[in-house]
Fold this sequence. Notes:
Layout (H helix, E strand, L loop, with lengths): L1 H37 L3 H4 L2 H44 L1
Amino acid sequence: AVSHVVGGLVTTLRVVVLLIVGRRLINGFVYFIKDIVLNLPADYLTGYYLRKTFTRLERAYLRYYELPSALRALARLASQICIQFVFAEVVG
């Protein structure tokens, strides 16, 4: 049983090392392409463009979908409470 645990740990360490080395290689490649070949601004490939786009889409989603659904939920809750008060007066 101990040998299986040790084997799992060794395999995990091997995968982690490969992931770290792979990330370093990819970052080096992106740096080479971005700065030397394309001469792009630094924020384009580092995610600023995607974060800005996602924030804009998220704001639009909140405005057009989330806020109206929250208002509908509050209106349903208020109407149910009012109906219960009316029934309590009528029945009670």
